[in-house]
Amino acid sequence: MISKLLRVIIMGPPGSGKGTISQRIVKDFGMKHLSSGDLLRKQIMGRTAAGIEAKKYIDQGQLVPDLTMVNLISNELAKIDGYSWLLDGFPRTVVQAKELLERGPIDSVINLNVPFEVIIDRIKGRWTHEASGRIYHTEFNPPNKEGIDDVTGEPLIQRDDDRPETVRKRLEGYQLSTQPVLQFFDDKKLLKVFTGKYSNELWPLVHDYLSTKITPVQYTSYK
Ligand code: AMP
To answer: Over the stretch 51-71, which tens digit does the pLDDT of each residue have?
Structure first.
């Protein structure tokens, strides 16, 4: 059934293209985008009480406490009441998921299932010019000369964050912490999994699926 309002959650490991797919959903379906990470960064910049508290956890690589998160997100959702929305980065725990469902209905939870090996392979091609932050990719955006920055002629480095073993650890951590959340939504018959390697492969599937629930504004195709 096509409805007028759609409340969707998007999940996916870091490097899955969740940001790209989210932007495309927002554009083609005219939805409001609410990203918990962006919201937290805004709170930190604005030095709000929630921002100051959140920063302590984020700086240590930890999750912000559920109560703070639930309050923040509830406030933001209240502001876009009456619109279709896409929630990104929230919920990260089962407690958050339960609180969200208490607040109001969710229509669908999209999970982008991109094989870990594909993500690791893609990220390991990244090389950075440390001083400027310029990023190259051996496959998609190679420097003119291997291992050398085009502008300064200085050597490129591989950031710690982009090393295969670091990426693998990050992905395993993500999987461990989100598995219960995915299970929770699956039990509620809300989970819809999309499997693929690239955003351009996943996008038509996601678009087709969402089109069964809400009328799209347009369809943008990406090659
Ligand atoms: P992100 O940009 O989504 O990776 O978020 C950046 C950081 O904000 C995360 O590493 C967490 O510390 C925190 N964060 C974002 N969303 C949540 C959430 N739903 N629950 C707890 N912490 C969060």
So the answer is: 999 999 999 989 999 999 999
Q: Whose CA is nearest to atom 11 of ligand 1?
A: 63
Q: Nearest residue CA, atom 4 of ligand 1?
A: 37
Radius of gyration of the chain from Cα atoms?
19
User: Which tens digit of pLDDT belongs to each residue from 137-153?
Assistant: 999 899 999 999 999 99
At 4 the pLDDT is 85
Domain total in the chain: 1
Cα separation, 122 vs 141, in Å, equals 12
Closest residue (by CA) to atom 2 of ligand 1? 37
For ligand 1, residues with CB inside 6 Å are 36-37, 40, 57-58, 62-64, 69, 89-92, 96
CA distances from 138 to 32, 101, 121 (A): 35, 44, 11
- Which domain CATH number covers 73? 3.40.50.300
